[in-house]
Amino acid sequence: MHLTRTLQPVLTSSFMMIFAVSYIRTYVTPEKTRKVLGGKTGLQYYLLASMLGAVTPFCSCSSVPLFIGFVEAGIPLGVTFSFLITSPLVNEAAIAALWVTIGLKATLIYILSGILLGVFGGYIIGLLKMEKYVADFVYKIKVGNQNRKLEALSIKERAAIAFDNVKDIVEKVWLYVIIGVTLGGIFHGYAPEGILAQYAGKDNLFAVPIAVVIGVPLYSNITGMIPIVESLIGKGLPVGTALAFLMAVTALSLPEMIILKKVLKNELIGAFVLIVTVSIIFTGYLFNIIL
Amino acid sequence: MKIEILGTGCSKCNKTKEVIEKVLKNDGVEAEVVKIEDVEKILNYGVMITPAVVIDGEVKLVGKVPDEKEIRKWISQ
Asked: Residue A214 and residue A63: Cα distance in Å, rounded?
């Protein structure tokens, strides 16, 4: 009962946040994003791409069609990467789950770093001028016009869509929060209190890179990872190290590399993995300093 | 009626096919259901986020699994 009462304001505000993001999303489609970002250069477009990535959810199997669609629209390679890097890292389900489990401050810092990571990663890839490392067939594909009668949605319909999304996410996030508490309980029984703090605390400079390197090949979507991260923090892993691990698992993964291999040559995949890994490691240190 | 399901083979795409076939069977509607997994063909429809549903060449839905109500609306038209 007590837990419910203390959680209530957090839950109410996170529901409202999910609703707001879902409502905004009804205006943002990848087709519009293509038009807005096509042929644009300038740092502000990296930021815009990164923020659009945060509000556009897609599963990893859509990364290839999205990538080709963006490149075909004349969106610079770096700007395209800004979108692709941020999208799995920042989304409303993750924000809600993090908010409930690790608090508002750490969540806000996480969102900000996720968006900046996308901007930075994309910008570096842009600077490296790696267009020639995109598979040749990508430039030959013609993206058609969606032959679709789009009825303009009313405010009421948009609100209904957003409400449905809130329901979906609440169902999912609740489950994960409960799994997190249970896992935490199990760990509590087996691992001694503070064992991670002892070996992987803030004063161990290797903890962040090791956590990130372990996380890179692993694949999970972000909400699935949150209970694990929560129980690691419960065992004394610094919040920054845990968040860096979370970012590494969700932003980069072996299955995703295999999917992207269809459209990117090895040099570009290598650069992408390296740049994002190094940025996450720095973000981890930064988190540990701030939090 | 030709129903095309666009998707590179993720679980949501398979679910889309299942639910469409279920509604067709329940309602006794005849339709040709094809799964399109080729990225180029998917993009030719202007679709970047899968799963997507195309009925007789018209894109009906992009980026999510349709619910039964939506499918009934499309097939009754």
From this structure: 23
Q: Residues for chain A: how many in total?
A: 291
Are A31 and B63 an interchain contact pair (Cβ–Cβ within 8 Å)? no
pLDDT in tens, A88-129: 899 888 888 888 888 888 899 999 999 999 999 999 999 999
State pTM to two decimals: 0.88
H/E element holding A251?
Answer: helix A239-251
pLDDT tens, residue by residue, A2-15: 555 666 787 788 88
| CA pair distance A212, A277, nearest whole angstrom | 7
Q: How far away is chain A from the Cα of B38, in angstroms, using its nearest Cα?
A: 10
Q: Do residue A65 and residue B47 have CB atoms under 8 angstroms apart?
A: yes
User: Residue B21 catalytic?
Assistant: no
Q: What is the ipTM of this complex?
A: 0.88
Q: Which two tokens stand for residue A239?
A: 């919040």
Q: Which residue shows structure tokens 């988190």?
A: A287
Inter-chain contact A147–B62, Cβ cutoff 8 Å? no
The strand pairing partners of A105, in sequence order, are none
In chain B, where the domains are located: 2-76
Percentage above 90 pLDDT, chain A? 42
Under CATH, what is the fold of the domain B2-76?
Answer: Glutaredoxin (3.40.30)
